[in-house]
């Protein structure tokens, strides 16, 4: 793929990242800033536009891509729903607001969807075409790429694997407000809640993973339970969706991978025994790189 570079943006609850990506998916330059989430959508958009504008002189005249937290209307680029990680984000016309600030067309997608596109383009799923990505962070999200194109569903919300009912989650409250979902176990929030229930001590999901690595038996038990639930659920999703590869992304992915891999292998039906479960490769660049790929899809 030839032509000028393209700019991709990752707008998250804690950080905003802009990258300049060449047509092979390689990051040439990047900018990063804290997201002023508590200052409201206008401040968030101003920050994103400032970072992107720094990179635009080195890019072509095509659209800018954005991956952001929340459910995104794929036609209008308006946020249909977002959590309190970005207060007031629901209803924000991200595509139009950034287009006005940057003087470019803007294509907007969900952040996990963008990460899946990025990994399929130039990361751990490169060359696979059919990819299931599950991102384990504060919450739990997913995305499916088919034949190199994102399958976002009818409402732009496909891939919400965190809301699958799973054994062992009965009585545990999910971030959506309901009970018994995978996110209540296999997410940073779920890890923190389970550790507090076992020990009476409150800490973050990342700290639970660090304590497990240091030999804390309660933390290890929490991670094992979460990994087992996640791996079994992924095996069922493989049978349903038939991807070529499954990738784990997000801050808790590496710590959950051992138990998840064992449960995945045990539950995977024989017809899909060759579908690997791997870690994603692009790290913190994944969303912004995928957003750049989303923008390229709009160009001839």
Characterization of this structure:
It comes from Micromonospora musae. Belongs to the ROK (NagC/XylR) family. The chain contains 8 helices and 12 strands. It is of the alpha/beta class and 300 residues long. It has a 5-stranded mixed sheet with strand order 3-2-1-4-7. A 5-stranded mixed sheet has the order 10-9-8-11-12, with helices on both faces. Strands 5-6 form a two-stranded antiparallel sheet. Helix 7 (253-267) links the parallel strand 11 and strand 12 (277-279). The radius of gyration is 19 Å and the shape is globular.
What characteristics describe this protein?
Nucleotidyltransferase, domain 5; five-stranded mixed sheet; 12 strands; 36% helix; 20% strand
SSE diagram, text form:
Blueprint: E1 6-11, E2 15-21, E3 27-34, H1 41-55, E4 64-68, E5 71-72, E6 79-81, H2 94-102, E7 106-110, H3 111-122, E8 131-136, E9 140-146, E10 149-150, H4 188-199, H5 205-213, H6 217-241, E11 245-249, H7 253-267, E12 277-279, H8 286-296
Parallel strand pairs: 1-4, 4-7, 8-11, 11-12
Antiparallel strand pairs: 1-2, 2-3, 5-6, 8-9, 9-10
Helix pairs in contact: 1-2, 3-8, 4-5, 4-6, 5-6, 6-7
Number of helices: 8
Using the coordinates above, name the CATH class of the largest domain.
Alpha Beta
| N-to-C order of helices and strands | EEEHEEEHEHEEEHHHEHEH
Q: Would you tell me which CATH topology of the largest domain applies?
A: Nucleotidyltransferase, domain 5
Shape: globular
Secondary structure category: alpha/beta
Level of helix content?
25-40%
Per CATH, which architecture of the largest domain? 2-Layer Sandwich
The fraction of residues assigned to DSSP E strands is 15-25%
Main beta-sheet strand count, sense and barrel state: 5 strands, mixed
How far the N terminus sits from the C terminus, by CA atoms, comes to 11 Å
Number of strands: 12
CATH homology superfamily name of the largest domain: ATPase, nucleotide binding domain
| Low-confidence region ranges | none
Radius of gyration: 19 Å
Q: Mean of residue pLDDT?
A: 93
Count the domains.
2
Sequence of strands across the biggest β-sheet: 3-2-1-4-7
Oligomer: single chain
């Amino acid at each position: 793929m030839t032509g000028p570079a393209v700019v991709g943006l990752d707008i998250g609850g804690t950080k905003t990242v802009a990258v300049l990506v060449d047509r092979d998916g390689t990051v040439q330059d990047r900018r990063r800033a804290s997201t002023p989430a508590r200052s409201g959508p206008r401040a968030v958009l101003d920050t994103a536009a400032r970072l992107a504008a720094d990179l635009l002189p080195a890019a072509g005249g095509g659209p800018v891509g954005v991956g952001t937290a929340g459910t995104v209307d794929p036609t209008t680029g308006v946020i249909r729903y977002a959590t309190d990680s970005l207060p007031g984000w629901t209803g924000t016309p991200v595509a139009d607001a950034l287009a006005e600030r940057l003087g470019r067309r803007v294509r907007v997608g969900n952040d996990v969807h963008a990460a899946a596109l990025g990994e399929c383009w130039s990361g751990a799923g490169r060359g696979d075409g059919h990819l299931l990505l599950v991102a384990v962070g504060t919450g739990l999200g997913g995305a499916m790429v088919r034949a190199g194109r994102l399958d976002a569903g009818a409402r732009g919300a496909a891939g919400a694997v965190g809301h699958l009912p799973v054994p062992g989650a009965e009585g545990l409250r999910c971030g959506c407000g309901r009970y018994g979902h995978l996110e209540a176990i296999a997410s940073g929030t779920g890890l923190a809640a389970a550790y507090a229930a076992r020990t009476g001590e409150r800490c973050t999901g990342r700290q639970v993973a660090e304590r497990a690595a240091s030999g804390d038996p309660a933390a290890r038990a929490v991670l094992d339970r979460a990994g087992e639930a996640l791996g079994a659920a992924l095996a069922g999703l493989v049978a349903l969706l038939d991807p070529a590869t499954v990738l784990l992304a997000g801050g808790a992915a590496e710590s959950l991978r051992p138990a998840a891999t064992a449960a995945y292998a045990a539950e995977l039906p024989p017809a899909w025994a060759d579908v690997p479960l791997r870690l994603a490769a692009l790290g913190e660049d994944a969303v912004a790189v995928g957003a750049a790929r989303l923008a390229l899809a709009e160009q001839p």
